[in-house]
Amino acid sequence: MLASTMGGMKVSATLAINQELLARRQAGQPVLPMGFGEVGLPVHPRLRHALAEHAGRNGYGPVAGVDELRTAAAGYWARRGLPTDPAQVVAGPGSKALLYAVLLAAEADVALPAPSWVSYAAQATLAGRRVWHVPVEPGQGGAPDPARLAAMLAEASAAGEAPRVLVLTVADNPTGRVVSTATVAAIAALAEAHDLLILSDEIYADLPHDPDTVVPSPAWFAPERTVVTTGLSKSLAVGGWRTGVARFPAGARGEALRDRVLTIASEIWSAAPLPVQHVAADAFAEPVELRQRILASARLHGQVAASAAARLRTVGALLPDPQAGFYVYPDFAELAEPLARRGITDAAGLSRWLVDQHGLGSVPAPEFEGPVDALRVRFTTSMLYGESDTERLASLQADDPLALPWISAQLDRFSEALDDLLGSP
User: Of 209, 342, 419, 420, which is the most exposed, with the fewest CB atoms less than 10 Å away?
Assistant: First the structure.
């Protein structure tokens, strides 16, 4: 267990690598964009048409979001085993903003899985909270090992400290794994015993590679103490449209937390963009063509992420099969000796070598785990689908996207970079 605080703040690591690769591309240098979690797929025509239809709506709207969106989001969660009243729903300009507002409103220190998305620890620090990193179970991701979480809570209590917020990511970024239902149930029991608020980021929950995979929400087991967030940026590739929703628990405790979040929202973003809210209302109603697009996207993500994972294993990196989303999180610990011959002794050095030598983006382990001595980096595969919407749409529709020349070329470049990394210096 590792408790940490962050010193000087900096631009998010994922955005920083994206900006660096963009500058390299603009300078005419080759890049392999595997650092940032953007989805390189075209916007579905239904969404484009809906945005154009509502573009004339220029009012602010209510802080919590328009009724149509909150009702649609309530239905979305009800279909996933979480009966929801629209009054429990708050809309925001992306789930990222909602996550931060909840951390501000909760007024408590924060426990995080190690690894976990880079922004959780940064947001907690911005909110003045202490961060406790708790390792995940081997082969899992998105939730801490229950035994280690219990030990950390006991350790913190003995020291007179009390983390009261636990953040989970179901399915996970950076590991691409889906935590087991048994682990989520065990964590929910711990949350009950220690009076923890669970903040469950479920932005990737609709992108399991196998549609039969169960993606368990902690709100199934601890509905009275779980806030769930999601959005459209990953499932429907509209990250730049900035729309998200949060589901608060029913009852007095959930209502009080929701009201604090609304107070914060009223002072930071006033209201989510009104035209996009109406588009999101249609999307969360899950019309057939959008549901089909999400399933096709998940299939594509799975095929390309699996190929990247296989290429990493070929050179000796260790990692479990990705199960959802578009991330792989390999461990190069077994390759420490050949990496050291190149002067690479930590994850930051590994990530820097890859971008300097091959324009290959990645994000090193300390950004996800706090200060750790590790040779792990995260790669993102969702920007390998083509340079134009024509190519990207063909990738989405292909039975075997790995056979498409633009995808195979990118993956081959990935292999070449790995081979060069581990070859003779």
Answer: 419
371 falls within a domain: yes
Q: List, for residues 242-251, the tens digit of each pLDDT value.
A: 999 999 999 9
Domain CATH number, residue 405: 3.90.1150.10
Report the alpha-carbon distance of residue 197 to residue 373 in Å, rounded.
Answer: 30
Residue 80 lies in a domain: yes
Query: What's the domain range around 311?
Result: 2-43+289-422
Task: List pLDDT tens digits, range 276-305.
Answer: 999 999 999 999 999 999 999 999 999 999
Strand order in the sheet with 363-364: 327-328, 377-380, 363-364
Give the separation between CA 396 and CA 401, rounded to whole angstroms: 8
Q: Is residue 353 part of a domain?
A: yes
Would 401 be classed as within a structural domain? yes
Same domain, 64 and 201: yes
Angstrom CA distances, 205 to 77, 387, 396, stand at 11, 27, 19
Q: What contacts 415, CB < 8 A, 6 or more positions away?
A: 311, 314
